[in-house]
Amino acid sequence: MLATFFLQNCCSNKISYKIKNKENNFMELRAELKLKDFAEFELLAKRIKLKSGEYLPNSEDFRVEIYDEYSNLIFNSNYKQNYFMAIAKVKPEEIGDSYKYSYKWDYKDNFGKKIKKGEYTAKLLIPAEPENYSIFINFRIEN
User: What are the sequence ranges of the domains in the chain?
Assistant: First the structure.
């Protein structure tokens, strides 16, 4: 079951978007987005089952991709980034354990231009091999 919740703090104009319970056989994902002077993405991953042969192919353990209302990729956190070439374990490692990933975004596209107000979709991704884990969260920028 996938559900979106919109919560607004009456005094600070902060808006939170939450997506709960995207589950596959190996990981349960919960996402939250807090909009303020910057967008703060959080992904809580809970290990349900161990996956044989799973790994991260480099030092990137979390990625945020932002798409506009026409499904065009306008920002990705790994754009022009260099990562160490090292095989790493996917967190959380043990059944029942949780791990929180987070990323702060300044509302700029990959070319440093401030985005326009409108509807957007964020894809929060753990870039695991042989198959990644991801969840989408829809949100609106008002300024």
Answer: 3-141
Low-confidence stretches of the chain (pLDDT < 70) are 1-23
Give backbone dihedrals phi and psi of 100, rounded to 5 degrees, phi first: -105, 125
Question: CA dihedral in degrees (118, 124, 127, 133; nearest 10)?
Answer: -130
The dihedral built from the CA positions of residue 89, 74, 29 and 8, taken in this order, carries a sign that is positive
Burial of 23 per CB tally in 10 Å (0-12, 13-18, 19+) = middle
Which class does domain 3-141 fall in? mainly beta
**Alpha-carbon 126 to chain mean position:** 8
Which two three-digit tokens encode residue 13? Answer: 């104009």
Beta partners for residue 104, in sequence order: 40
Q: Which residue type is seen at 43?
A: L
60: Cβ contacts below 8 Å, ≥ 6 apart: 78, 81, 83, 127
* pTM of the full structure: 0.84
